[in-house]
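Notebook entry, structure prediction.
Reason for the run: the old model in the group folder had no record of what sequence produced it. Starting over properly, with the input documented here first.
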Amino acid sequence: MFVVIFGRPGCPFCVRAQQLAKSLESANAIEGHRYVDIWAEGISKADLEKTIGKPVSTVPQIFVDKTHVGGFTEFDQYVRENALMA
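New structure, fully documented this time:
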């Protein structure tokens, strides 16, 4: 399982998503994660909307194995529902 987090600098939920992904990685619950700084990469919310297929108003936007999960709250819920953390 691989997690990709699209976020931006100064976003507290982006930081929390990264921390959760790092914890999952340390616990061997996921193979790894990648953080994509949308500002540094020149990715707009419109670009994310095209990828996701619906309007995007916030970051982070998180994918698990190329499937869009949502923001931090949805990612946290996904982790709990799939018992990825002990």
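Summary: Residues 2-81 form a domain with the Glutaredoxin fold (CATH 3.40.30.10).
The old model has been moved to the deprecated folder.
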